[in-house]
Design a protein that fits this description.
alpha/beta, Rossmann fold, six-stranded parallel sheet, two-stranded parallel ribbon, 10 helices, 12 strands, globular
């Protein structure tokens, strides 16, 4: 398979390139320096010259709070830019797999969100990502949107790296206990993105590691894997964060992987397994 990966220098993009190369794919790995998907001319040139079978779009502006302060930039990079990618895919017949987020929901349901639940983003970031979904899905059966949540990996900034950096600096760590989601690991997500591309699956898919928890609970598990006492992590409410975060977060980010389950895709592992692997890798 000929695969073009955008955002190839990011957390998920880096692992996606590694997975595709290991599978024997012919890969064009384009990071932001080599391809700004906000530039239509660059996108059309890159995709029409390489003529991939599939494009896995991992490029995005993911600074949630910064998006709140600059909505035009967020809409351009997370919304309109996806139109550029979709247009180029259409020209060469490439299948588009676009990476999205739990932030397209408002988090008010009392159960995990499935793919057909109504979206209602509460932040500029969530709005911009929802627009990006619609731009990708305009390709019809030649596109898929993969929503995921709470991603950690060996590349880029994430919660696991934050905890590793903080654990020796503070006797106590405080994390919110009223936001719930599915921690997901780039090393497990990347093969699923490739599979969706290889099978040319269409529509919206929720793909996460298994087992929900709160940020408080997740950090406790990270601390335990690091060999420290989880009791050093204390719960706080989102309303008590100081300073308050500019962008609202959905209190319920749990994603039901319903489409994958119904279509026979293998479920990803309980997050404890890739968490332990990542911690070992980062602390070796």
């Amino acid at each position: 398979m000929r695969v073009l990966v955008t955002g190839a220098g990011g957390q998920v993009g880096t692992d996606t390139v590694m997975v595709c190369e290991a599978a024997g794919d012919h890969v064009a790995a384009l990071d932001h320096a080599s391809l700004d998907i906000g530039r239509r001319d660059q996108v059309l040139s890159a995709i029409t010259s390489f003529r991939p079978d599939a494009v896995i779009n991992c490029a995005a502006w993911t600074a949630v709070d910064a998006c709140e302060a600059d909505p035009d930039r967020a809409l351009a990079l997370n919304g309109l830019a996806v139109r550029n990618v979709a247009e180029a895919c259409h020209r060469v017949g490439a299948h588009l797999v676009h990476l999205s987020t739990d932030y397209v929901f408002d988090g008010t349901l009392d159960r995990p969100y499935h793919e057909w639940d109504e979206t209602n983003p509460m932040s500029v970031y969530g709005i911009s990502k929802l627009i990006g979904e619609s731009e990708a899905l305009a390709l019809g059966p030649d596109s898929a949107v993969v929503r995921t949540s709470w991603v950690s990996g060996a590349h880029g900034a994430n919660m696991v790296k934050t905890v590793i950096a903080l654990i020796d600096q503070h006797p106590q760590l405080a994390f919110v206990a009223d936001q719930f989601g599915h921690p997901t690991f780039a090393a497990d997500l990347a093969p699923m993105l490739r599979l969706v591309a290889l099978d040319r699956r269409s529509g919206v898919h929720h793909i996460t590691n298994q087992r929900p928890t709160s940020w408080f609970g997740f950090v406790q598990e990270v601390v335990a894997v690091l060999g420290r006492d989880p009791a050093m992590v204390v719960p706080i409410a989102t309303a008590d964060l100081q300073p308050p975060r500019p962008a609202l977060r959905p209190p319920n980010s749990m994603l039901d992987n319903a489409v994958a389950r119904m279509n026979g895709l293998p479920p990803m592992r309980d997050f404890a397994e890739p968490l332990a692997e990542l911690v070992r890798r980062l602390t070796a």
